[in-house]
Amino acid sequence: MTETLPTPLDVRLMNLTATLLFVIGAGLLLAAAGWWAARSPLFAIGRITVHGDMVHNNAVTLRANVMPSVGGNFFSVDLSRVRAAFEAVPWVRRAVVRRRFPNDLDVTLQEQQPAAYWGADDASTLLNDFGEVFIANTAELVDTRLPHLSGPADQSADVLAMDRTLAPLFGPLGTELARLDLSAHGGWRAQLASGAVIELGHGTPDVLVARVRRFVRTLTPIASRYGLTAAALRTADLRYADGYAIRLAGLTTVAPAPKKK
């Protein structure tokens, strides 16, 4: 039986040194290849292809605005910086940027879908379908018949959700919910397209829905007692536990002053 002799120490050291030199050489070669690729004009960004929603923007304008922010080439370009440049363009909500070998960028855009005006009537602030606040030129709106909403900035999504919950309830009155405001203290106020202002008070969506339904169901019968219609409504206060107070155009509870003789 033949015994295997141990490898001499000097041979093992030589093998280890050769392996180490090979690894170092390979690493230097890869580093050199990376350095060359990062600076080679062969991989310079030559085209940006834009897909997705582009109602308020066009690909040519977008590329012109974003190209100055594109630094480096295919390998070194900062995709997060390019994405931020696209998302800084008005009406762009989100951008997804991908590399496409050898020197292209592929961008998929999602534009803002306006759901309501937000804040002051003369502001250019809008809410999108997600209840997110964004700034845009309102003169470019395709549909200008949007509700006006306002409230604390961190509750914009809640205000939009409440508007969508309450708006259909006013249909039987022959008008629409034109404005909904949430105060800093949590009180809700609605304004109808007819101009009537309704104090809704505090409460959860279920509580407010119950108040509005009771109000809508009973307003027309009450107004008809005085020969009026729901269109005569000027103000309403629904903050009472067992009823509400209203003011109707053409109706007063103040007795006329007696005529002088």
Report on this structure:
The mean pLDDT is 86. 21% of the residues are buried. A hairpin with a 3-residue loop joins strand 2 (92-100) and strand 3 (104-111). The protein has 261 residues and is α/β, with parallel strands linked by helices. It has helices spanning 9-39, 59-66, 79-87, 156-166, 205-224, and strands at 47-52, 92-100, 104-111, 114-118, 125-128, 133-135, 148-150, 177-182, 188-192, 197-201, 233-237, 245-248. It is elongated. The longest helix has 31 residues, at 9-39. It folds into 2 domains: 44-111, membrane protein fhac (Ubiquitin-like (UB roll), Roll), CATH 3.10.20; 114-248, Cell division protein FtsQ/DivIB (Rossmann fold), CATH 3.40.50. Strands 6-5-4-7-8-9-10-11-12 form a 9-stranded mixed beta sheet, with helices on one face. Strands 1-3-2 form a 3-stranded mixed beta sheet, with helices on one face.
Question: In short, what is this structure?
Answer:
With 261 residues, this protein is of the alpha/beta class.
Q: Layout of helices and strands, plus pairs?
A:
Layout: H1 9-39, E1 47-52, H2 59-66, H3 79-87, E2 92-100, E3 104-111, E4 114-118, E5 125-128, E6 133-135, E7 148-150, H4 156-166, E8 177-182, E9 188-192, E10 197-201, H5 205-224, E11 233-237, E12 245-248
Parallel strand pairs: 1-3, 4-7, 7-8, 10-11
Antiparallel strand pairs: 2-3, 4-5, 5-6, 8-9, 9-10, 11-12
Could you name the ranges where pLDDT drops below 50 across 5 or more consecutive residues? none
Radius of gyration: 34 Å
The strand order across the widest sheet is 6-5-4-7-8-9-10-11-12
Determine the CATH topology of the largest domain: Rossmann fold
> Under the CATH scheme, which class of the largest domain?
Alpha Beta
What's the mean pLDDT score? 86
The major beta sheet can be summarized as: 9 strands, mixed
Proportion of helical residues: 25-40%
Question: Termini, distance in Å?
Answer: 147 Å
Number of beta strands: 12
Number of spatially distinct domains: 2
Principal-axes geometry comes out as: elongated
One letter per element, helices H and strands E, the order comes to: HEHHEEEEEEHEEEHEE
Class inferred from helices and paired strands: alpha/beta
* Full CATH superfamily name of the largest domain: Cell division protein FtsQ/DivIB
Number of helices: 5
Beta-strand content bin: 15-25%
What is the annotated CATH architecture of the largest domain?
A: 3-Layer(aba) Sandwich
